[in-house]
Amino acid sequence: MIEICALASGSNGNCYYVGNEHDAVLIDVGISRNQVLERINQVGLDFAKVRAVFITHEHSDHSRGVRILHQKFNLPVYMTAITFNNSYRANRPDKYVPFLPNDSIKINSLLVHTFSKLHDAVDPCSFVVEVDQKMIGVITDVGMACENVKLSVNKCHALFLESNYDEKMLWDGSYPIYLKNRVASKRGHLSNDQARDLIMEHAGSMLDIVMLSHLSADNNTPQIALNAFSELIPKHKIILSDRLAPSEVIKFQ
Questions:
Q1: Tens of pLDDT, residues 31-46
Q2: pLDDT tens readout for residues 195-205
Q3: N or C: which end of the chain has fewer CB within 10 A?
Q4: 47, HSE (Cβ side, Cα atoms, 13 Å)
């Protein structure tokens, strides 16, 4: 049985759980150690299954809690050397395991495939976790869908996918123009429409579950994001993450 959950998803913190009956990994730890443990217990998952942590990039909403989590449980932390060297010292684990984009890393019964992407970080990467011959993608913080992202989406059975902003809300909103341009740039974030088009144009026939992730508090709403994906609902299960609480645990085989 495969289990996936967005323990946190948004600019206030990101942490994604992917695993099976025996093993699990966390993708990003942008919330505190205590929040990780509380949320895992809250949704009925088992932290004892977690074998490793993978960090996508150095921004604090993806790495804030990893140092303390590593110190407490001695979990291996995988990140690129460039990401480690550019992380805030307070967020850096005492030790880390370096990887390169396009590596495949075996974590007991899991296989984690790494790839680079476009985002305003020094060496941003995302991951597809292979669990019991199923592919689960964690693809957030993407300004523009490069070929790596398109190919990864194409192979996924389930997907945490960024659906960060509604274009009208962003451009009509209160952000200063430099920040609007940054969000909408090819190294910013995916809009609802861009995320929907990515699924429509590049998802494989096996994609079943899409969890809309990293929704903006200021430039999106859950209902607007869902509405953007309405035409895909007959074909895919479209599920919302929550910025302030863990998502439901999705279980499948």
A1: 999 999 999 999 999 9
A2: 999 999 999 99
A3: C
A4: 15
- Over residues 227-249, the pLDDT tens digits come to 999 999 989 999 999 989 999 99
Q: What is the residue whose two structure tokens read 């929040």?
A: 35
Strands 209-213 and 237-240: parallel
For the chain, percent of residues with pLDDT exceeding 90: 98
Q: Determine if the pTM surpasses 0.85.
A: yes
- Full 3-state SS string of 131-199: ECCEEEEEECCCCCCCHHHHHHHHHCCEEEEECCECHHHHHHCCCCHHHHHHHHCCCCCCEHHHHHHHH
Residues 236, 203: Cα–Cα separation, whole Å? 10
Block residue for tokens 């439901």: 248
Angle at 111 between CA 110 and CA 116, to 5 degrees: 140
Amino acid identity at 88: Y
pLDDT at 61: 96
CA distances from 243 to 3, 72, 86 (A): 20, 25, 26
One-letter amino acid at 197 equals D
Question: What separation in angstroms does the CA of 84 have from each of 69, 110, 122, 208, 214?
Answer: 16, 23, 10, 34, 23
How is residue 102 written in tokens? 């396009």
Q: Are 136 and 157 in contact (CB under 8 A)?
A: yes
